[in-house]
Amino acid sequence: MILSDIASGASIYPLTLLRSDRDLTKNLQQRLTILGFSPGPIDGIWGNKTQAAFDAFVKKHQLKADEISPKTAQLLLPPVVSTPPPAPQSPPPPKPPVLPASLRAIASGTVTWLINQISTNPGLSRAVQQSLDILGHQPGVADGIWGNKTQAAYSGFAKIYQFNPNELSAEAALYLLEPPVPGVAVIRPSKRLVDSDYRTIAQSIGCSVAAVRAVAEVEAAGSGFFRDGRPKILFEAHWFSEFTRGRYDRWYGDISSPVWNRRLYVGGVGEWDRLYKAICLDREAALKSASWGLGQIMGFNHRSAGYSDVQGFVQEMHDSEGKQLLAMFNFIKANKLDRYLANLDWAGFAYRYNGESYWQNQYDKQLANAYSYWMNAA
């Protein structure tokens, strides 16, 4: 037994039992010597000097002289120094983000980049220049060099959407790639048609739900939104020329033409680039010159679609396919075509909705077949 065994236990040992324990006596002598009590030689023999030294120790600490208790052993031993737990290591500083290689990657991220960071990357600078050029902001040659013209063009773009002209955020990058109508939010994901939309329209028109579904299937655009959440549109350059009295025909012939020209169509989401460029010239004329959503209702037909102004019409066309389909059927009702749906007169409806050549595409038969399908599916 040694002192640490007694110190860590709960038992009190009479001194008479411990004096014959040479290991304990030797341990005790070592500690008394260190503490300055002079027990004589450290030989494990409990003699008079050891006894006198022990008596002096217990007297100093007001302990009992005929025993060694855990407290006595603890005072004889060196104090236990508690080792503090290791300080938590600070995490390494985060690595600075790496500038992405493309506008699309920036648009998909969360980091806002300074323009002086973008300008050091010729590939990104060229991509921004190309987008600005498509959108009509005239950044100069797309050479990957961010000069004064490029900065002026980007500042013009940033002003329209209230971006910081000295930064390129994820949203700004997205708008360079997919420009929305300024001031009109793009809803993602798009709200698709639901059964209640068809019922609401059927009640407003006074026809069957199957008739509404038939017209939507044959005459509507299939989906009212592009995958990026913007409404499907087709920009009509001849209407933009009409509404702006031809003042942009000479310099902006790709979006303003005195006559209809099939070659001006870009198709798909590219039509939005044409619309954006026109909006920068004349917002109201541009919005009126595009067809919108499922029914591809022209903006200038906003009153027939149930809206007092084209801005409100465009706002609602961004909201849902249900709003788009309602606008389409408001237009049908305003042009007194609802009675043909109520009477299931498919030829009469197709003649007035698709024109005299409706029979070439058999629109009347397509409508009748779709109606029959939806009646049986109900």
Automatic annotation (TrEMBL):
Offer one Pfam family short name for this entry.
PG_binding_1
The Pro residues compositionally biased stretches are: 81-97
Task: Tell me which residues make up the N-acetylmuramidase domain.
Answer: 209-374
Q: Where is the Peptidoglycan binding-like domain?
A: 24-66
Instruction: Give the start-end ranges of region Disordered.
Output: 77-97
Q: What is this protein called?
A: DUF3380 domain-containing protein
Q: Which organism is it from?
A: Myxacorys almedinensis A
Q: What is the lineage of its organism?
A: Bacteria, Bacillati, Cyanobacteriota, Cyanophyceae, Leptolyngbyales
